[in-house]
Design brief:
This protein is an alpha/beta fold. It has eleven helices and six strands. It has helices at residues 6-10, 13-22, 39-52, 79-91, 121-134, 146-149, 156-159, 167-174, 192-199, 228-232, 252-258, and strands at 37-38, 111-115, 142-144, 177-182, 208-215, 218-222. The longest helix has 14 residues, at 39-52. The radius of gyration is 19 Å and the shape is globular. The N and C termini lie far apart (53 Å). The relative contact order is 0.13.
């Protein structure tokens, strides 16, 4: 960037053109709950961020971010950073969601993601890749992630309705269940919104709750019931297992934090 400041680069034509070239507008998808992401689309986002984020800085004030002012890298990149540098600037011109830059048609969610935006973005992608493997999901399977599904420049359209009629609730209704993605400090459990999302599981006992986290750089999945991978491996039918991780045991902190929420405990 030379002498160009991070603030100047953020609003520069160069940054805008790089985004629009990588993510050209595809189509408007009318129903927000139909704007889920496939793993390949998520990988496309990660590849772009990996190649560009060394030019970015954390623009959040120090009171809101521990990495305020720092040059960004995948090792510290979170969804707040991705929203600031990718989602909002890329979607401003068309007033669309980020999914509408990636998908030409509706993508109905297979699973709904509940998480804390401050979790590492690379950990989120690791967790979802592992989850898809544990659940034996097809390559076209998709995950509903609010940051990418909502039109960030007109959020009032999603929230100016009865809470149970929001796209969040509709997306959960369409999904097999919720994947709760945790960081090592389980910050999602401090979020009132995450608590609301999880409370919706009580209204429909057919919905599943899977818990995902990264431990020692390895994604771990605590599946609700016996996961499809375990069934394929001929585990005991109906057995309550904490090791839906290709034989690797889950860390105790993850099991203990998830226990009150997991219906199989």
């Amino acid at each position: 960037m030379g002498c160009q400041s991070s603030q100047e680069f953020h609003s520069s034509i160069e940054h805008q053109q790089t985004l629009l070239s990588a993510f050209p507008f595809q189509s408007y998808i009318h129903q927000t709950e139909h704007r889920a992401l496939t793993l390949e689309q998520l990988a496309q986002i990660v590849r772009f961020a990996s190649g560009q984020c060394s030019k970015w800085h954390d623009r959040a004030p120090a009171r809101l971010s521990n990495t305020s002012g720092q040059r960004l890298a995948l090792e510290i990149l979170n969804l707040y950073h991705v929203s600031d540098w990718m989602i909002r600037p890329a979607t401003r011109q068309m007033n669309c969601s980020f999914v509408e830059l990636l998908a030409a048609t509706e993508q109905v969610p297979n699973w709904y993601i509940s998480h804390w935006w401050g979790n590492l973005f690379c950990d989120l992608t690791k967790c979802l890749s592992k989850h898809a493997a544990v659940r034996l999901l097809p390559v076209e399977a998709s995950y509903w992630i609010c940051a990418f599904a909502l039109r960030q420049h007109c959020l009032d359209l999603d929230f100016n309705v009865d809470l149970m009629q929001t796209s969040f609730c509709k997306a959960i209704a369409l999904s097999a269940g919720i994947v709760l993605v945790l960081d090592n400090h389980s910050q999602a459990f401090t979020s009132a919104w995450c608590a609301f999302e999880l409370s919706l599981l009580d209204k429909d006992e057919s919905k599943l709750l899977d818990v995902a986290a990264v431990h020692h750089n390895e994604a771990m999945i605590l599946a609700d019931g016996v996961a499809e991978y375990d069934k394929l491996a001929q585990d005991t039918p109906g057995e309550k297992s904490h090791s839906n991780n290709f034989g690797q045991p889950l860390p105790a902190w993850m099991v203990s934090f998830a226990a009150p929420f997991n219906k199989t405990q």
